[in-house]
Structure formats: structure tokens, C-alpha cells
Prior knowledge:
three-stranded antiparallel beta sheet, 2 domains
Amino acid sequence: xxxxxxxxxxxxxxxxxxxxxxxxxxxxxxxxxxxxxxxxxxxxxxxxxxxxxxxxxxxxxxxxxxxxxxxxxxxxxxxxxxxxxxxxxxxxxxxxxxxxxxxxxxxxxxxxxxxxxxxxxxxx
Length: 124
């Protein structure tokens, strides 16, 4: 009787081994499920990025507003009859150099109390 119990226990363990550790076992399934969830998350992030880029491309194709905005902020360009005004923050103690911001204002309405850093050359 004891020998039969030992044989059945051994057979049960042999059957369980492929279920847990085999090629299609539960541990492998759990690992693959984790990899799928990571890939789905990355795909959703990339889809959002692609949608953003597609809308930006469409905006650049359709109108001049996006082109003008890029030219102003990335290239520092200003329109005719505008004055470039740069406002520098006062230096504070040991903090080092203060931050600065560049703002393009129309010539008719310069910022009050701002120091004029440079003027756009007037075209003849």
C-alpha cells in the first residue's frame, strides 16, 4: 500500500512539472502576459506621439499660424514694426545669473517699465 502511494505521488509530481515549468507552463504564460502588457503600454504611448506629430504636420500644411509660432519661439524672429524687448530678472545673492525671457511686442504698445534691449531694423 505504501509503495502504491509513493508511486502515485511521484506520478503526480511528474505531471505537475510541465504544467508549471514546461514550455507552455503557467510561469511562462505569466511572463508572456507581463511582456504583452509592457508592449501595449509602449504602443499606446507611441500612438499618442504619432497622433500629436500628425496633427502638427497637418497644422503646418494648412495654415501659417504654426509656422509663425515656430519661427518666433525657435528661431527668435520678429515681425516688421515690432520691438524686441528682453527683461532680465535681478541677480539675487549667490544664485548666479538671473533668468531672462524674450518677448516680442508691437511697436505701438511696448511693455511698461521694460528695458529696450534691441530694435528691429526698419526696412526702407
